[in-house]
From TrEMBL:
Subunit structure: Homotetramer.
Native species: Vogesella fluminis
Entry similarity comment: Belongs to the KdsC family.
Record-linked Pfam families: Hydrolase_3
PANTHER family on file: HAD SUPERFAMILY MEMBERS CMAS AND KDSC, N-ACYLNEURAMINATE CYTIDYLYLTRANSFERASE-RELATED
Record's catalysed reaction(s): 3-deoxy-alpha-D-manno-2-octulosonate-8-phosphate + H2O = 3-deoxy-alpha-D-manno-oct-2-ulosonate + phosphate
Keywords for this protein: Hydrolase, Lipopolysaccharide biosynthesis, Magnesium, Metal-binding
EC number: 3.1.3.45
Protein name listed in UniProt: 3-deoxy-D-manno-octulosonate 8-phosphate phosphatase KdsC
Enzyme class: hydrolase
InterPro entries: CMP-NeuNAc_synthase (IPR050793), HAD-like_sf (IPR036412), HAD-SF_hydro_IIIA (IPR006549), HAD_sf (IPR023214), KdsC_fam (IPR010023)
Cofactor: Mg(2+)
Length: 174
């Protein structure tokens, strides 16, 4: 059995769910029907740091909210799949498009809809407030909750496993 560090070291693509992972899972709906979500800036900077080392980013989400598409563009996320009901299909398309193997991917999710992808990737990650059945199928459960730094925690885990964390942090002190 490989360690979490060994699994994270292999990661070339980080795939994320949105609601409950990049957000706290709450959805605010205005009177006009617009969805509002809050994203954590620490997660955003962690994703930018991870990208700077060559790791690609993807979102596969069941909802199709314009605000999420805007956030994905703002972060320069390479691959964005919204309104997806079968995440397996999106994963297969993503692997075909990138030429990567599933073992080269990490996925972070929070609910049973994420299990078809989590069960196929090299590093499956859940947030602590995911149902216990989902947490049981994860290689790693973050200490931080969704929307509260869980993605940043995963980014730093991957950066450390790949030997890039100390170099990146030194750059902030130069």
């Amino acid at each position: 059995m490989q360690t979490i560090t060994e699994l994270a070291k292999r990661t070339r693509l980080l795939i994320m769910d949105v609601d409950g992972v990049l957000t706290d899972g709450r959805i605010f709906i205005t009177a006009s029907g617009e969805e509002l979500k809050a994203f954590n800036t620490l997660d955003g900077h962690g994703l930018r740091m991870l990208q700077s080392t060559g790791v690609q980013l993807a979102i596969i989400t069941g909802r199709d909210a314009p605000g999420v598409a805007h956030r994905a563009r703002g972060l320069g996320i390479d691959h964005y799949y919204a309104g997806v009901h079968d995440k397996r299909t999106a994963l297969a398309e993503l692997l075909h498009k990138t030429g990567l193997a599933a073992e080269d991917c990490a996925y972070i999710g929070d609910d049973v809809i994420d299990l078809p992808v989590m069960s196929r990737v090299g590093l499956a990650v859940a947030v602590p407030d995911a149902p216990s059945f989902v947490r049981q199928h994860a290689h790693f459960v973050t200490g931080c909750s969704g929307g509260q730094g869980a993605v940043r925690e995963l980014c730093e885990l991957i950066l450390q496993a790949q030997g890039n964390y100390d170099r990146l942090m030194a750059g902030y002190l130069a």
